[in-house]
Every structure is written in structure tokens, then in C-alpha cells.
């Protein structure tokens, strides 16, 4: 190739800091200097720009595609359709290959890819797409998920559809419990479609490789699963799809499914030239799956003093046209559908369905978010019916270590929910805001009143999230660790395929290596598929899984180092500490550098968590999760009840993370997760009509700004999980669950409105809902 | 078309610029300065914020042809010192140290905006920081540590002057 590609390099972890400290991010200096190579920054001499023509219709038959005029445009190097897919024409995550690489005879959602263009300039590619003529026969879209459940065979959007998965949960005898309940409450709840809205758009660079394959530099969450899906579609063995992680501008689940990977590779292989693809924000809204919208019916019965007797629940999740990860999302919704509460009799029916609405899949919280809004709303409703406050009703029913979840799974490690609620309630309250400063009022400087209608409300929310992959999946991560002397200094190189998506995994990998090997200088290699699978950067699992793999590989390297030292010093009472080989009896014997000399110690290890089991298809019973994590939130809001405007004044959170590996990092996870929950509570929704997205832009899909996000109070607990590395508990997702219901509860407290739907809109506050 | 522009103190002549290109495209794709990010192309997210004649602007909303004869400063031009031996600006250092950077995609724009704020207002209140950064979206941090970073940068800048 004509020039070196600007691609990701090694990052050297600066400064000191092992497990429990907060060293600087190894990639941080590059990021603040504007020099970090994100996927959209990649560039190569002679590269072409790829673009994707997408369906304007949610459901239509394709009668014809004419690419001739587009191909004739000067500067256009390729126009490809489904006929040009070199291998298998379908792909999909989770082993369900039901999604066409490019639409074949029909389109099933707005934005479905139909054709590809490669051109010298992105504007030329855009103009070429306008010249592709697709003959559509437009059909009535199927958009009502409850109608699909009622008639799954009649309302099929694809061969697999109607119902993607129905997962029941059956515990005890709900019918009998209904007869004995002294208090019964019921509610219907709805959650709109939330978008991950990561800031770095889907992007990547594909380069034909010397072995007839392709080098791919992309922003993804799971390199190996990408390659597994890409290779068959390209008609290549996996060994010839060389994937390197390019800088990732946030993910939040939205990069778990493929976006431009196969498309860019097809264009590169077809033209023999490097091809860059980078979506703009409009396209990004169609380029990835979203959080499933949900329709939920709940009925709870309890004793007069507020002890839960039964739960009768239906959860309907709209997965859109293709399977994506809907089956696993349904599993989470079912297993965590009543939250961290002890309930002796449970009936849950969780459904995922196919429609012509936008495809939905993974987003932070993954099936646990939707139900959390409903079950927490129910706890407030039950508390009110029993004359108990929000904290007391939750404490009275809270799980603890030894409790059973709805699946029958026993919570084996600490789950101090009642204590967490007590701590949360005891946190100081924020003072009233000075209404003479407009910036303090709901609506800020656009307020037109003097705050006469502003009412304060307080609400609480609790959430429980499974950590790592569940339901019997063989979940593992791989790490290669190399120790050698470079320039006179012992240096560790950590190599995994784990995706750094912003969460700080590269920092933690370096911390683990320093702690385990006592060596200061640690370098993190770019993630790629020259090392074994790391699993996805999702399910809050990478500190646990890739952290565990790096720890295991370091332990093996350390054993090798100590074996060298044992030979050198003729004794076995040895350990590594602070870059020295020390004897328990005689202290320091020498440095790591002395012992290593020219030797290179390299070890690769796979790490697995304890196996889980499938959920019983009839009863939902099973030990389906390996770790569970709790977060609780208190929200304080000021609501202008006349104008329907909300200002979240403060969020307080208590989360148990088992062990704080990096305080700065875990605080950032709780802050950021809480902000996304705030977005779902009062701002964020992909608005649909007849299967069409009405707001695919940051002008119309609003995410929280610094004016929307309040100060936070955090109390981070460390009750270790003995099964996990260092006792840690995955931390990224739980705060996304509980902040939403806490904020809505606070708005209810201020407005006395039912607010059965998120996001809460001004009209719900003013007119009720 | 040809564009004559000063970028990060250096006079540049950029050829073959198409009239429809934005300043952001020209910086990123024609000048090898991808530090300014493209996340919305509508002026909503602030990720492409640069100084244009000393005033922060969204580079996505400025046509490349409009910057002829003008002065542009990007995130790549904030560090001081000779090439290869630059010292980060206090705002950059503060973002790094406080944990205000996660994925970092919003970071260049936020740093330019915060740099401008501290230049105009050496001791901003929290309300002033929030107001100044209200046009910069961040999806990772919840903004708490960004506030910490701006407070720290302001303190250090004040202490140094």
C-alpha cells in the first residue's frame, strides 16, 4: 500500500497504580490532545469512501434495483447489491442468521441496507446513491407487538416471526395467593425506544490483505463475534479476516451487532482498495439496534402490612424485524422481572416479538431496565396502598444473601439491599434552590414564570442486574501477558481482544498487571483477533472476565519468573514485590531485571466464571446468572406543574461494587449510567409513526446536557463476591436501571400524576397520563 | 477551490477544496487534523468545537470557504512547546487527571469550550460552567467529572497567573 495507515497503536500506561488505586488512563493523554485514533479518524492514501443506500420504507417488496446510472457517475468505483455478497447472504448475532447483509427481495424496517457505493469522495458516494433506482412495492407495516402475540402466525414480518421468545416464570400458586391477598395493586407501564446515542458514529476502514482476506479496523464491542459473522458472508475463513479495534467513541450495547463491517469489507475486496465507512448521525440512528420498547402489565398482592404475596406480570418487548439479541433480552426481563424482592408466588410471561419497527437489541441494562421501571412503580403503588413510605415498603420485601430470585436461584454473595436503602435515606437532602436565579428553575433561562408552580418531589428506585453472560453460555475471556526487559527495564505487555469502549478497561488491565507482577511499566497492545476471544464489552463483564484473564495470565508469568529466580538463587521461598525478587527469610535478593536477563516469559490464559444453566422453558427456574449487582437511587426533582417542566435537582446513589478496582473509573460508571437513566426518565425516545422514525438527529432526539444532569452523591460499598477476581462486581449497568424509576417517582410525588410511561413528557405532567 | 488559512499558528494553503465542504471536513480529511470530531453535523453536540478568530465555533457549521484569511485553533493546537515535546494545556491536564475522559469523543470539543471559558472567566461558578458547556454533549461521564476538571483547571490557571 502507498502509505502507512493511521491506525491504533500500543498505549503505555503512565504512572503508578495497582488494583484499588486510580492511575491515569493509558489512552488519556492521546484523547485530551486530540490524537487518539478513533475509527472515524482512520485514513489511508488512495482510500475510497463507502456509503449505504437504505430503505425509506418499514415494509416493502423489492421489485427491481437499477444501479447503472450510479455506476456511470465519475468517481464511483463500485455499486453493490445482495447479488455481490461473496458468501452467505445472511448474518446475525447469537447464532440466528436472519438478517440479510443487503436486502434481497424485501425490506423489513426503515433504514435496512439495500445497496453499497464506493467513491473517491463522500459527496460523490451520496450523489451516486441518489441515482440508484429501487422499485418498491410498499406494504402495510406490522407495528403493534400485542397484535403479534395475539396472531403470531398471521402477522409474520419474516420466516421466524411472530414471537421471538416467550419465557414464562412460575413460582408457587398465584391463583391461591390472589384469594388470600389483603391488598391488591395493578398497573400498566410503557417504556419508549431508547437509543445508545454513543457520540462516535459507526466507522471503520477495510483494507484488502496480502493473503486474499481483509484487514478491518473498526469500533466494535466484540471482535471475535464480529469475525464469526463477517467471514462466512465474505466467503473467507475466519483466519483471513484480520480485525483490530479502532478507537471506540462509546458503545452502550449499540456496537454489539454488526453495522458497516461486512459492507466495508465487500467494497474493499471488490475494488482492491482501502475503503472507509463512517455514518453520520442520521444514519447512525438506523445503523444500530436500540433498547427494546416495552408494554407491561403488573398486578401485585400483599398482606395489609405490605409483605408481597404474589406478582402476576406480562412483559412485551418489541424486537423489530430481526432477532439480534432479543432472546437474551427476554431472558433477563423474565428472570429479573420483579426485581430484588422476595415474592412467594410469581407468574411472569415475558415475550419478544418481531415487527417492522426498528430492530432492537443490546443496550446498557439489557432487558432489566424496562421491567425495573414497572416493578419500582409497583412498589410505590403498593407502599401507598399499605400506608408505607417508599423506603419502608422496599426494605420490608428486600432480598438479602440467601434469598431466592424469581428463577429460584439463590443469591449466594452479599446483597445488602435493606442496608443500602437505609444509607440512601440517611444522605443529606439538597437545600431549596434560589428561585430568583432563573437558571435554578425547571426550564432554566427559558422559564417564563417566577417559579410559582414549582413543586419539589423525592423518589426512590432500586435495580438488580445480572453481570456476565447468562443462561448456560460458555462465557470466557483470554489474555496474553509477556514479561521482558526492554531498555534495561522490566516491561509487561498485555494483549487481549477486549474492547476498550471508554469504560477504562485498559486502565484496569494495567492495574491488574502491576499488582500481580510488581512491575511498573505496562503497555497495552491494540485489541485484535491475533489473540483468543475476550467476549463482549457488555453485561458489565470485562473487569470481571478480561480482568480475570489478565490476572490468570500474570499469575502464570509470575510462576515462570519465580522458577527462574529459584534456579538463580537456589531457594523457593520467593515472591515478587515492587520490582524485586524477595525471599521471605532474607528480604530482597535481586531485581526482576537481574533474574529475567534476556529471557522472555509469555503466557496465555482463558478465564471462565462459574457455569450458569438455562432457564426452564416452562417454569423459568434455573441458576441462570453468575453474579448479581444492586444499585439504589434517590432523586430530588423540582417540577413546574403548570408548564410540565422538570429539573432534576440531585441524584444520590448507593451501589455495591464488591471491590473498588479504580475509584475514578467506577464513579464515572455510576455518574454516566445514572445520566442515561435520567435521559430515559424525562427526555429520550425514538418516536415512531407507522414504523417510521420521526426524530433521527440530535436536534430531535435529546440526550442530557450538563444543564440537565444534576450533582450526584455517591456511596460505594465493597462487599466482596468470593467467586470474582478481587471480589469485584460488575458496575456499569446497575445505575442505569434504578435512576429512571427514582426520577419518575419523584415527579409523581411532586405532581400526583400516575406517569405510567417513560420518558415523561410535559403533557403527561400537565394533562395526566 | 484554494483556501488560505492559519491553523494552530501555521499558515496553510489547502487545494482542491469542494465548495460544499465544511471546515470540519477540511481539517479532518484534508489537513490531517482529526482531533475535532464529527458526531452530529448539526451544531448540537459541540464535538467539533474550534476557535475561529479566537471565538469557539462548531466547525461542522462553518463552510471551508468561509475561513479564508482567518485564524483557526483546534484541540491539537492547545499544547505548548516545540513539536515532539509539547506540554499539555492545564485544561487538557485537568480533564485527564479528574477522570473527565471516558470514551473521549466529546473531549476535544469540551476542552476547547472550557479553555475559552477559563480565558474569559478565570473563576467560573458551577452555574457558569454549566452554561458555558451546555452545547457540548457527553454520553459517558454524566458530566460530574467534567465539572471537576473545569474547576481544577480554573484553580491552576489562577494560581499560575
Automatic annotation (TrEMBL), chain A:
Q: What is its EC number?
A: 1.17.1.4
Ranges for the Aldehyde oxidase/xanthine dehydrogenase a/b hammerhead domain? 33-140
Q: Name one GO molecular function term.
A: xanthine dehydrogenase activity
Keywords of this entry: Oxidoreductase
Is Repeat set as a keyword in this record? Answer: no
Disordered, as annotated region: 1-24
Q: What class of enzyme is it?
A: oxidoreductase
Instruction: Write down the InterPro entries for this protein, in alphabetical order.
Output: Ald_Oxase/Xan_DH_a/b, Ald_Oxase/Xan_DH_a/b_sf, Ald_Oxase/xanthine_DH-like, AldOxase/xan_DH_MoCoBD1, AldOxase/xan_DH_MoCoBD2, AldOxase/xan_DH_Mopterin-bd_sf, Xanthine_dehydrogenase_dsu
The region annotated as signal peptide is: none
Mind telling me which NCBIfam families this protein's record contains? pucD
The protein here is known as Xanthine dehydrogenase subunit D
From TrEMBL, chain B:
* Keyword Oxidoreductase part of the UniProt annotation: yes
Listed GO molecular functions?
2 iron, 2 sulfur cluster binding; metal ion binding; oxidoreductase activity
Keywords, A to Z, come to:
2Fe-2S, Iron, Iron-sulfur, Metal-binding, Oxidoreductase
Q: Where is the 2Fe-2S ferredoxin-type domain?
A: 1-78
Q: Enumerate the InterPro entries for this protein.
A: 2Fe-2S-bd (IPR002888), 2Fe-2S-bd_dom_sf (IPR036884), 2Fe-2S_ferredoxin-like_sf (IPR036010), 2Fe-2S_ferredoxin-type (IPR001041), 2Fe2S_fd_BS (IPR006058), Beta-grasp_dom_sf (IPR012675), Diverse_Oxidoreductases (IPR051452)
Q: Say yes or no: keyword Iron present.
A: yes
Name of the protein this chain belongs to: (2Fe-2S)-binding protein
Species of the source? Actinomadura soli
Amino acid at each position: 500500500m502507498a502509505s502507512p495507515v493511521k491506525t491504533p497503536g500500543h498505549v503505555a500506561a503512565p504512572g503508578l497504580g495497582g488494583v484499588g488505586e486510580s492511575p491515569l488512563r493509558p489512552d488519556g493523554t492521546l484523547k485530551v490532545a486530540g490524537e487518539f485514533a478513533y475509527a472515524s479518524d482512520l485514513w489511508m492514501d488512495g482510500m475510497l469512501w463507502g456509503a449505504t443506500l437504505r430503505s425509506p420504507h418499514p415494509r416493502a417488496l423489492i421489485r427491481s434495483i437499477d444501479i447503472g446510472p450510479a455506476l456511470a457517475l465519475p468517481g464511483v468505483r463500485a455499486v453493490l447489491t445482495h447479488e455481490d455478497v461473496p458468501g452467505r447472504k445472511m448474518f446475525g448475532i447469537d447464532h440466528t442468521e436472519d438478517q440479510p447483509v443487503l436486502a434481497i427481495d424485501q425490506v423489513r424496517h426503515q433504514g435496512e441496507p439495500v445497496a453499497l457505493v464506493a467513491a473517491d469522495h463522500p459527496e460523490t458516494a451520496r450523489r451516486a446513491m441518489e441515482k440508484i433506482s429501487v422499485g418498491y412495492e410498499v406494504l402495510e407495516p406490522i407495528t403493534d407487538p400485542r397484535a403479534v402475540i395475539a396472531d403470531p402466525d398471521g402477522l409474520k414480518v419474516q420466516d421466524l416471526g411472530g414471537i421471538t421468545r416467550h419465557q414464562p416464570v412460575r413460582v408457587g400458586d398465584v391463583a391461591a395467593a390472589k384469594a388470600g391477598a389483603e391488598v391488591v395493586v395493578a398497573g400498566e407501564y410503557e417504556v419508549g425506544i431508547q437509543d445508545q446515542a454513543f457520540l462516535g458514529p459507526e466507522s471503520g476502514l477495510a483494507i484488502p490483505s496480502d493473503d486474499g482476506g481483509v484487514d478491518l479496523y473498526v469500533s466494535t464491542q466484540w471482535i471475535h463475534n464480529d469475525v464469526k459473522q463477517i467471514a462466512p458472508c465474505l466467503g473467507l475463513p475466519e483466519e483471513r479476516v484480520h480485525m483490530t479495534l479502532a478507537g471506540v467513541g462509546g458503545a452502550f450495547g449499540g456496537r454489539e451487532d454488526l453495522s458497516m463491517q461486512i459492507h466495508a469489507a465487500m467494497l474493499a475486496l471488490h475494488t482492491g482498495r482501502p475503503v472507509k465507512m463512517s455514518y453520520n448521525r442520521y444514519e447512525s440512528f438506523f445503523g444500530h439496534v436500540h433498547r427494546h420498547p416495552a408494554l407491561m402489565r403488573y398486578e401485585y398482592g400483599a398482606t395489609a402490612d405490605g409483605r408481597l404475596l404474589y406478582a402476576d406480570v406480562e412483559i412485551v418487548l418489541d424486537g423489530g424485524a430481526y432477532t439480534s439479541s432479543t432472546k437474551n433480552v427476554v431472558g433477563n426481563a423474565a428472570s429479573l422481572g420483579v426485581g430484588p424482592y422476595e415474592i412467594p408466588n410469581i407468574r411472569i410471561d415475558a415475550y419478544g416479538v418481531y415487527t417492522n419497527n426498528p430492530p432492537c437489541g443490546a443496550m446498557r441494562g439489557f432487558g432489566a431496565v424496562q421491567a425495573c421501571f414497572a416493578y419500582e412503580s409497583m412498589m410505590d403503588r403498593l407502599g401507598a396502598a399499605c400506608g408505607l413510605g417508599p423506603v419502608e415498603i422496599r426494605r420490608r420485601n428486600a432480598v438479602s444473601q440467601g434469598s431466592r430470585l424469581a428463577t429460584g436461584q439463590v443469591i449466594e454473595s452479599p446483597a445488602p439491599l435493606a442496608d443500602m436503602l437505609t444509607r440512601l435515606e440517611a444522605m443529606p437532602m439538597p437545600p431549596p434552590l434560589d428561585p430568583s436565579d432563573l437558571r435554578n428553575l425547571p426550564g432554566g433561562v427559558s422559564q417564563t414564570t417566577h417559579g410559582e408552580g414549582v413543586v419539589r418531589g423525592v423518589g426512590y428506585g432500586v435495580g438488580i442486574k445480572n453481570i456476565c453472560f447468562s443462561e448456560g453460555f460458555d462465557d470466557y475471556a483470554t489474555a496474553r501477558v509477556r514479561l521482558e526487559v526492554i531498555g534495561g527495564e522490566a516491561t509487561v505487555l498485555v494483549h487481549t481482544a477486549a474492547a476498550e469502549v471508554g469504560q477504562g478497561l485498559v486502565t484496569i488491565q494495567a492495574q491488574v498487571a502491576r499488582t500481580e507482577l510488581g512491575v511498573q511499566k505496562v503497555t497495552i497492545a491494540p485489541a485484535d483477533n491475533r489473540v483468543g476471544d475476550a467476549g463482549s464489552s457488555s453485561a458489565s463483564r470485562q473487569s470481571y472476565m478480561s480482568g480475570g484473564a489478565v490476572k490468570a495470565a500474570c499469575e502464570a508469568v509470575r510462576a515462570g519468573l519465580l522458577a527462574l529466580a529459584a534456579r538463580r538463587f537456589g531457594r523457593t521461598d520467593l515472591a515478587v514485590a515492587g520490582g524485586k525478587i524477595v525471599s521471605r527469610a532474607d528480604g530482597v535478593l535481586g531485581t526482576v531485571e537481574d533474574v529475567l536477563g534476556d529471557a522472555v516469559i509469555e503466557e496465555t490464559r482463558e478465564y471462565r466464571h462459574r457455569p450458569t444453566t438455562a432457564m426452564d422453558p416452562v417454569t423459568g427456574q434455573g441458576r441462570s446468572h453468575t453474579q448479581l449487582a444492586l444499585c439504589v437511587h434517590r432523586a430530588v426533582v423540582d417540577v413546574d406543574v403548570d408548564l410540565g417542566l422538570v429539573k432534576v435537582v440531585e441524584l444520590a446513589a448507593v451501589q455495591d461494587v464488591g471491590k473498588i478496582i479504580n475509584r475514578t473509573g467506577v464513579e464515572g460508571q455510576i455518574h454516566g449510567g445514572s445520566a442515561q437513566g435520567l435521559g430515559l426518565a424525562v427526555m429520550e425516545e425514538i418516536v415512531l409513526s407507522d414504523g417510521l422514525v420521526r426524530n433521527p438527529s440530535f436536534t430531535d432526539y435529546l440526550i442530557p446536557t450538563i444543564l440537565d444532569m444534576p450533582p450526584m452523591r455517591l456511596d460505594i460499598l465493597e462487599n466482596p463476591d468470593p467467586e470474582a477476581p478481587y471480589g469485584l462486581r460488575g458496575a456499569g449497568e446497575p445505575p442505569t436501571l434504578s435512576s429512571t424509576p427514582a426520577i419518575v417517582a419523584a415527579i409523581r410525588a411532586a405532581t400526583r400524576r400516575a406517569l405510567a410511561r417513560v420518558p415523561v413528557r410535559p403533557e403527561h405532567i400537565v394533562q395526566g397520563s | 477551490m484554494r483556501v488560505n488559512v492559519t491553523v494552530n499558528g501555521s499558515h496553510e494553503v489547502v487545494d482542491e477544496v469542494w465548495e460544499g465542504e465544511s471546515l470540519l471536513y477540511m481539517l479532518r480529511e484534508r489537513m490531517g487534523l482529526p482531533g475535532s470530531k464529527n458526531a452530529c453535523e448539526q451544531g448540537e453536540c459541540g464535538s467539533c468545537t474550534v476557535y475561529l478568530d479566537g471565538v469557539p465555533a462548531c466547525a461542522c457549521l462553518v463552510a471551508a470557504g468561509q475561513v479564508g484569511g482567518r485564524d483557526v485553533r483546534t484541540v491539537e493546537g492547545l499544547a505548548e512547546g516545540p513539536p515532539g515535546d509539547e506540554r499539555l494545556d492545564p485544561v487538557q491536564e485537568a480533564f485527564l487527571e479528574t477522570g473527565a475522559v471516558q470514551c473521549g469523543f466529546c473531549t476535544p470539543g469540551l476542552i476547547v469550550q472550557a479553555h475559552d471559558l477559563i480565558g474569559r472567566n478565570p473563576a467560573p461558578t458551577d452555574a457558569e460552567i454549566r452554561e458555558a458547556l451546555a452545547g457540548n454533549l457527553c454520553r459517558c461521564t454524566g458530566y460530574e467529572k467534567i465539572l471537576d476538571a473545569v474547576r481544577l483547571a480554573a484553580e491552576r490557571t489562577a494560581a499560575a497567573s
